Amino acid sequence: MSGVIEPITGRYVHVDVGGEICRIYFEENGAGIPLVCLHTAGSDGRQWRHLLADQEFARNFRIIAFDMPWHGKSNPPAGWDGAEYQLTTARYTQTIRAFCQALALDKPVVMGCSIGGRIVLNLAIDHACEFRALIGLEAADFQAPWYDTAWLNRPDVHGGEVCAALVSGLIAPQSPENSRAETLWAYKQGGPGVFKGDLYFYRVDGDLRGRVERIDTRICPLFLLTGEYDFSCTPEDTKRTAGAIGGARVTIMEQLGHFPMSENPEQFRRYIAPVLGEILDQSRQTKRGVPV
Amino acid sequence: MTARLESPRETMISASTATDAAVIEAFAGIPALLDQAPALIQRGRLLDCECLLGPASRAFHASIRQGRIVELAPAPVLMRSWRFSYRASAAAWAEYWRPVPRPGFHDLLALTKRGEAVLEGDLHPFMAHLQYFKDMLALPRRHFVTAAT
User: Fold this and answer.
1) Cβ contact (<8 Å) for A162 and B106?
2) B127 at the A interface (CB within 8 A)?
3) pLDDT band, very low/low/confident/very high, at A112 (cuts 50, 70, 90)
4) Domains in chain B, ordered, with CATH?
5) Span B87-130, pLDDT tens digits
6) Which of A88, A161, B82, B90 has its CA 20 to 30 A from that of B16?
7) Which candidate from A157, A169, A174 shows the least CB-CB separation from B110?
8) Phi, psi of A90 (to 5 degrees)
9) Region A9-287: CATH code
10) Does the model's ipTM exceed the 0.85 cut?
11) DSSP string, A237-281
């Protein structure tokens, strides 16, 4: 055998989300602290493949990335009647918690990007004690819209092309061409209306202004990292959000945009490695009974 | 005290006369650069459109046929119609065409969000061919530094 086989494995788990069974695809690698990774709107778990394959991280973390229902290899729920897909704060939160429970994860770390970063804030508000640490990439309580989402799903505009073209500007110019193309490919492959439906959560239902003040980082540490080239969730949006949360840690990442883990995995690693290292240290100290 | 609402154009960054001239010259060169980009022409092969593009103060009427710019005429042209326009300050174009643009100046819609560009009219051809327009309007990037220095 001469082919290189990556250490990532993929399986399906049947998850009860609000009384509805969802067949969810997930990939994982490593052992140790569960680290659940959430993809951006309109994409899927492939965005995390470089982190999943990272041998150093995999020594201490069980890295898991799942495709939300309707995304990637997770089909729409079996009972879907063709109604317009719209992600809500409640449904998104419910899905993540149900997935973690289905895998019996013990106080996982959750790291989400974009909509995943936003929902991480909601987890911190309402369910902090269930998690070891929370990491929001390109996360803010709210950000100003910069296009009309009606363009994302209409019969006279190619959905895959317009979704990819819109988000292409959110990638930093320094990102390698192959990683840029791969990041956009997932957007070209999304189901019709799925990106738009995710943005219902982002734009309409998931406005967390006035709620993030309730986050208590003593219960669960919160790390926020945003790329300097992200003009959707700008560094200022993240800093403003963090300003209302005592103890929130902010990092602005140079030469990165809205998709740090997939647009430039090497550059992202420089920023996420110290965060994961700190979580690992804290976890070890807690295990030894040392107050942190 | 009377509040005054600023339009995006009033807040645009300003450019020197030299930059204005360099941007206009670079714009005039786009059709030739496009002719040398067969993949981009292929991407726009189904596009026929009249549009108004360029610096806010000295825009161009572009006639696009099957992905090629067959005419680029400085505005104003008497009674010439257009379906959409994308106009930015000359300084914003100069920033957009830097080899590595600064954050916020690296994308057409980043420029509209920050008020450095204005998108108007019937947006269907622009949105249906969004990557084409992004790439076509970025064509001077490799050449602009030389032109401006």
Assistant:
1) no
2) yes
3) very high
4) 15-142 (3.30.1050.10)
5) 999 999 999 999 999 999 999 999 999 999 999 999 999 999 99
6) B82
7) A169
8) -65, -45
9) 3.40.50.1820
10) yes
11) HHHHHHHTSTT-EEEEETT--S-HHHH-HHHHHHHHHHHHHHHHH
